[in-house]
Amino acid sequence: MIDIPLVDLRAQHEQVADEVADGWARVLKTTAFIGGRQVAEFEAEFAAYQEVPHCVGVGNGTDAIELALRALEVGPGDECVLPANTFIATAEAVARTGATPVLVDCVADTGLIDVDLVPGALTERTKAILPVHLYGQAAPVERLTGFGVPVVEDAAQAQGARRHGVAVGGLGDLAATSFYPGKNLGAYGDGGAVLTRSDELAATVRLLREHGSPRKYEHTVLGFNSRLDTLQAVVLSAKLRRLEGWNAGRRAAAERYSALLADVPEVTLPVVLEGNLPVWHLYVVRVPDRDRVLAALHAAGVGAGIHYPTPVHLTGAFDSLGHARGDFPVSEEIAGEILSLPLFPEITAGAQERVVAALVEAVR
Question: Annotated catalytic residue: which of 29, 127, 183, 216?
């Protein structure tokens, strides 16, 4: 039985339950379930929080990446560069536009995209670079903006993170984020958003998300049906007001793990890239014989996980890219060693001590 979960959504809900119930009651009274004023209010609040002019709410994080790319007119025959070490949605969104994902390896100590490999992956067909802000810290986007290619941040795991003092979401040309329930800012279902400083790109995403329709029954381009609904906007606004405090709680928990594990050489601790203020969406360590260690943790009641066990190029979905094992050795190596420990703002010191005790017993 798992008694220390990887993520505890119940504890978070208890803090916003009354506010969400009151907000939902107002939505139910007006029946404005799609496009209600609460959606526009949340978009303005989240844009201000991420320090960009525009936030466009959409149906989910994968749609957010795709719509950001389509706003840049990415399509068949184009290429987009992204890391092999990411959740499949990053590559999936590229493929859904008709473009080809071009993969590069990651850096071993952070798991982030290896920017030194990006120039060798660029061609005349490259239409976008997609750095992934992994585990709650930002990729070094400033090293990717000088190639004359638009940068689309995958910011699903880094709501509130900063790089050199700049909030994620405003580091590139556009950014996509996810409000999947387990994210630092999570809805009670699917949801996502596109962030940008560009008036023109924001207008294009707004057009695309709603059937290519600037007004009812007028359709100027072929669009999609991908809207953030009003009930989810109520949840997200309530949670956004608490996000800074929750992220601070995550940082404190991460610091505690690092202190408790400092003298355990069998466990490789996560590294924060210089210039980053992370939000610790995940606390990911590396251990030998990971699968055995994971099973031992589960047997001890610790809900550890893996993010992610299979690099993009080794998934069946992307066999068509023609890659083989060994093509991205760093991503492949860490995929066999990474282990995500339970982490959420409300986790207690006692629970973390239990996690560490179980981990130490398992690795030794």
Answer: 183
